[in-house]
Design a protein that fits this description.
Structural class: alpha/beta
Helix content: 55-70%
Number of strands: 9
Strand content: 5-15%
Radius of gyration: 26 Å
Order of helices and strands: EHHHHHEHHEHEEHEHEHHEHEHHHHHH
Strand order of the largest sheet: 7-2-1-8-9
CATH topology of the largest domain: Malonyl-Coenzyme A Acyl Carrier Protein, domain 2
Distance between the termini: 29 Å
CATH superfamily of the largest domain: Malonyl-Coenzyme A Acyl Carrier Protein, domain 2
Largest sheet: 5 strands, parallel
Number of helices: 19
Shape: elongated
Length: 420
């Protein structure tokens, strides 16, 4: 079976409308936002879906918004794709998202941590007037040495890829050294964060955050989560220590992605807004296929590659069970003509389908299974079977034939299941 890794984005990925499609289409995602609104005491969902981008970009709101959007997207991922990762990683803020999804921290506790983190970082930002720059097309070693020689108060804050390094510092110092890097042939891009994150400027925030982290109960990880500080999986006893240190230390993303590739991961899926980490994975480890769950084409491609093989399932059992369920379901319709056309005719079609498959010695394809289930739906509707009982019957078929993973999502998309 293919190995998956999940990646969770950090601040800067926010945009108006993020996660709205999950909120409107999936009850689990909607509940995440409703809980966040209640816990925060303001309309985070409205800010995410219809707010002002200037307001959403403020650290105080951006971090809870991206975190909540990522957790909502994770619920949809598990519902639609359902493959547990062999490991996960989050970029900066995204590390808390990764820890929550791994089960180490509850969602309410994680949101409280994110709110505290955003508050402390905003306070530090207001006191420093700092900023961050992404430096592309220069080796990290050159960036390090130049900063150390020209202005040691400007430091590397992110090792994103072999050709992208991010620096943090005082706004005026950052501007001057950015101009120097441009003269050296680099591409310089200001980040939309408004503070010198992952630098010594965050020391006051780091101290306050450690106190908040020490109040949290940490549970066992369901799968390894990679630390930004070390580029290696967390030791569970050091979650508070590493999350606090992360505010001061550079994000070792390139090293983290190398670790993921070393676990023979085939697919890396970015869970949250935009596709920044998807692009970075492609740069860092081109042999790992990267997808953004937020990007429609990537989402559709991921569903195709993750679809289970029909040959691994007892699909002939689905056809047999359709016949058995059709007979055993109570009839509530006493119109002879409707019964003939809506029950007898489709039942005979399923019988004929089974006979032809058994004659050829073939397992039915996914389409043939869906065809039989459609005919069973016609029988249910004609018999006047309630939606609740219909869904129970379908689940019975899937579970007794071991085809839930293969058929449930397909039937949901076809409208067989009305309840979310």
């Amino acid at each position: 079976m293919s190995k998956y890794a999940l990646l969770f984005p950090g601040q800067g990925s926010q945009y108006i409308g993020m996660a709205k499609k999950w909120y409107t289409g999936y009850s689990a995602a909607k509940r995440v936002f409703e809980e966040a609104d209640d816990l925060l005491g303001y309309g985070l969902s409205q800010l995410c879906f219809e707010g002002n981008i200037g307001e959403l970009t403020k650290t105080l709101y951006a971090q809870p918004a991206i975190f909540t959007s990522s957790i909502a997207a994770f619920h949809v991922y598990m519902e639609e794709i359902g493959v547990e990762p062999v490991c996960s990683a989050g970029h900066s803020l995204g590390e808390i998202s990764a820890l929550v999804c791994s089960g180490a921290v509850s969602f309410p506790a994680g949101l409280k941590l994110v709110q505290n983190r955003a508050t402390f970082m905003q306070e530090a930002a207001d006191a420093t007037q700092g900023s961050m720059l992404a430096i592309t097309d220069l080796p990290a070693k050159v960036v390090e040495e130049t900063c150390a020689a020209i202005n040691p108060s400007v430091v590397v804050s992110n090792y994103n890829s072999h050709d992208q390094t991010v620096i943090s510092g005082n706004e005026e110092d950052i501007k001057k050294i950015g101009e120097l890097f441009e003269q050296m042939g680099a591409t310089v891009i200001p980040l939309k964060v408004g503070a010198p994150f992952h630098s010594p400027y965050m020391k006051p925030a780091s101290i306050k955050f450690l106190r908040a982290l020490e109040q949290i109960e940490y549970l066992k990880l369901k799968w390894p989560v990679i630390s930004n500080v070390t580029g290696l999986p967390y030791e569970e006893s050091k979650i508070a220590q590493y999350l606090s240190a992360q505010m001061l230390e550079p994000v070792r993303w390139q090293q983290s992605m190398a670790y993921i590739a070393g676990q023979d991961v085939e697919y890396a899926i970015e869970i949250g807004p935009k596709n920044v980490l998807t692009k970075l994975m492609t740069k860092n480890q081109p042999l790992v296929k990267a997808y953004s769950f937020d990007i429609e084409n990537d989402y559709l491609d991921l569903k195709r590659v993750s679809a289970p093989s029909v040959s691994a399932f007892n699909t002939i059992g689905v056809i047999i069970k359709c016949l058995a369920v059709a007979v055993s379901t109570k009839n509530n319709n006493w119109s002879n003509n409707e019964y003939e056309q809506g029950v007898i005719v489709p039942y005979k079609k399923i019988q004929l389908q089974l006979e032809e498959l058994e004659k050829k010695g073939n397992q039915p394809s996914l389409d043939e299974c869906i065809s039989a289930l459609r005919l069973l739906k016609q029988i249910f509707d004609t018999k006047g079977t309630s939606i609740v009982e219909q869904e129970e019957r379908y689940i019975q078929i899937f579970e007794e034939t071991g085809t839930y993973e293969l058929l449930h999502n397909a039937c949901s998309e076809l409208g067989f299941f009305k309840r979310k």
